[in-house]
Amino acid sequence: MEAAPSQPVLLYDGECGLCNAVMRFMLKNDRRGVLMFAPLQGRTGQDFLRGHGLDAGNFDSIVFIEDLGRADTPFYLRTTGALKALGTLGGFYGKLAGVLSVVPASLRDVVYKIIARTRYRIFGRYHPTPLPDPAWRKRILD
Could you tell me the superkingdom of the organism this chain comes from (predicted)? Predict the structure, then answer.
């Protein structure tokens, strides 16, 4: 019996304009179609946060989950999560993620936290609009 393929998922702030732009960028550039997405505010996001002892009311960090189907799956926050997600795209973006990973997370996360605190003011709140590609819709979890 073959093992089921892993299902990497990126949890993101569904109300953040920047976060939604990043999600659309990743959908467009994930040519293998392996990365799934779920808003932190949705059922999938809330269940994961609560089940892993994370604050279900804090939407200031993305969460990259290596395999949503495994209870003991590794997960990563802030820039480490962003780079892990970027790495799933492979090609140029995978290499870019590797290069950026050389910078210590403590330094990367300083910038991340500043952006997280000001993201609504700078990028606005996101008002859901239909995704243009039906194949993309299948990759967004509730």
Answer: Bacteria
